Amino acid sequence: MDPHPTPEPTADTAPRTRSAEPAGTNVQAPPWGAPAPSPGAAGPRPEAVPPPPGAARHGLPAPALPPPSPPRSRARRLLAPVGTLAGVVAAFAYVRAVDPNEPGHYPVCPLFRLTGLYCPGCGGLRSAHAFAHGDLPTALGANALAVVGYGVFAVVAVLWLVRACRGVPARLAVPPVWWWGIGAVLALFTLVRNLPLGSALVP
Fold first, then answer.
1. Which of 109, 106, 186, 194 shows the shortest CA–CA distance to 149?
2. Which is nearest to 190 in space by CA: 136, 125, 144, 134?
3. 109: closest CA among 85, 125, 128?
4. Is 40 left (phi over 0), alpha (psi -120 to 50) or beta?
5. How far apart are the C-alpha atoms of 155 and 149, rounded to whole Å?
6. For residues 96 and 145, what is the distance between their CA atoms, to the nearest angstrom?
7. Which pLDDT tens digit goes with each residue over 120-161?
8. Dihedral pair phi/psi, residue 105, rounded to 5°
9. Residue 126 and residue 145: Cα distance in Å, rounded?
10. How many helices and strands in the chain, by DSSP H and E?
11. C-alpha closest to that of 120 among 90, 154, 148
12. Which of 2, 118, 132, 139 has the maximum number of C-beta atoms within 10 A of its C-beta?
């Protein structure tokens, strides 16, 4: 008998076989109906990117531009400014013929009727009536701000006519600060003409 018998291998001491898959990998089958990933694919495919605006240089067709509009005739260009001037002249002619100093011809200012306060437009018709007759001092006394408005409108109308004759588009771009300034002038004019110190501005 062998004094040192060799022990038989048991389940705990039996050699373990390694798996054919390397450690740390988890291979999953693709879902039903999905294409199998190609070898070497690192991740999802990127989405399609639209071509840049200058892709027409590289052989891609460029979008068709609309044909330019034909130039308008001088008569059509002058239609808007001449029509506006004709309407203003007709309004002044009516106010010149129908005296606003006589009651019953024009409605009374609702602010003055309800509160007794003068708005920025109070006296405007009397100012236009005097201005149409060439009486500038009376027009300024009735509504000085309206007379300033007549001058501004005359300058804008002349520029509009000149641009229309030359075929230049008339664009009146007024910055917001100008609108705020006009509103401040109107508010100050209204305040002063309703104070005792502004009696010269009362119509």
1. 186
2. 144
3. 125
4. left
5. 10
6. 19
7. 999 999 999 999 999 999 999 999 999 999 999 999 988 888
8. -85, -30
9. 13
10. 6, 0
11. 148
12. 139
* Overall residue count recorded for the chain in this entry: 203
Rounded Cα distance, 36 and 29, in Å: 8
Cα separation of 75 and 84, whole Å?
Answer: 14
Whole-prediction pTM? 0.60
How many other C-beta atoms are found inside a 10 Å radius of the C-beta of residue 43?
6
Tens digit of pLDDT for each residue in 61-117? 656 666 656 666 767 888 888 899 999 999 999 999 999 988 888 998 999 999 999
Distances (CA, A) of 22 to 19, 26, 42, 48: 7, 9, 19, 36
H or E segment at 166?
helix 144-166
Two tokens, residue 47: 């989405």
C-alpha dist (Å) from residue 161 to 27, 77, 168, 169: 81, 9, 10, 11
Tokens of 201: 């501005």
φ, ψ for residue 15, nearest 5 deg: -65, 135
User: How many Å apart are CA 153 and CA 48, to the nearest integer?
Assistant: 57
Element of type H or E holding 139: helix 136-142
- Two tokens at 189? 């004019």
Among candidate residues 171, 170, 189, 174, the one with its CA nearest the CA of residue 118: 189
Angle at 140 between CA 173 and CA 172, to 5 degrees: 5
**Both structure tokens of 30:** 């693709």
| 8 Å CB contact between 155 and 79 | no
